[in-house]
Structure formats: structure tokens, C-alpha cells
Amino acid sequence: MFAVVVTIEAVPGKADDLIEALKANGSHSREEPDCLKWEWSRHVDDPDKFAIYELYTNRDAFLAHKASEHFAAWVEASGPCIANKVAGQYQVEGPDVREALSLS
Fold it and tell me: How many degrees, rounded to 5, is the angle at CA 33 between CA 28 and CA 96?
């Protein structure tokens, strides 16, 4: 499995616009056949900070996600809302065994 973790700081006053872009991106991303999880969170102490966690079957699935029309729409919609963004890509080495148990 392949994970992507993104932290975002919204431009002051643009958090609501960013949330709308997150919702749109998430709804489309979750429909991709190789997207296993796509969720976003808002920081408990700073409402202008967000995190996205994405899980795909493999890196190629993530690259297909990045090539999609809805990802291009996300980039366009979120760009003016983002003051700072840090993204990392990870090969999942220690999956949650509870999920494996529920699938069997």
C-alpha cells in the first residue's frame, strides 16, 4: 500500500473555501477504484491548519489520482487558499492488522 500525508495551513480568512475544495476532492477521490482511504482533518487548536491522509493500493494508483480531472480542479480551487503545504509519500510497511482481520 502507498500513503500520502499532506499538511496545509490556510490563508487567513480562506479556511471555509479550502474546506469546500477538500470536500470536492475527497468525494471524487474516494470513487477511484484503487483509493482505499481519503480523509481530511482540522487541527484541534488552530482552525487554519489541516491534514489529508490518503491510502492507495500502490504508487501508480496515486499517480493516476494526480493525473485526474478532479485533482486538477482541486489544485485550481485550493491554490488561493493555501499559505503553506507539506506533502510526503510513503510506502506502508506496518499496516493496521485490524483492517486485515475485518477483510478475511
Answer: 100
Strands (E), the chain: 2-10, 35-42, 49-56, 82-91
Q: Which residues contact 56 (CB under 8 A, 6 or more apart)?
A: 1, 2, 3, 4, 34, 35, 36, 62, 65
User: Residue 52, Cβ neighbours under 10 Å: how many?
Assistant: 19
pLDDT single digits (tens) 24-35: 999 999 999 999
- pTM score over 0.90: no
User: For residue 96, what pLDDT is reported?
Assistant: 82
Residue 18 to residue 24: CA distance in whole angstroms: 10
Task: Spell out the alpha helix ranges (H) of 5-56.
Answer: 15-29
- pLDDT at position 68 is 92
Exposed (0-12), middle (13-18) or buried (19+): which is 85, by Cβ within 10 Å?
A: middle
Write the CB contacts of 99 (distance below 8 Å, at least 6 apart in sequence).
none
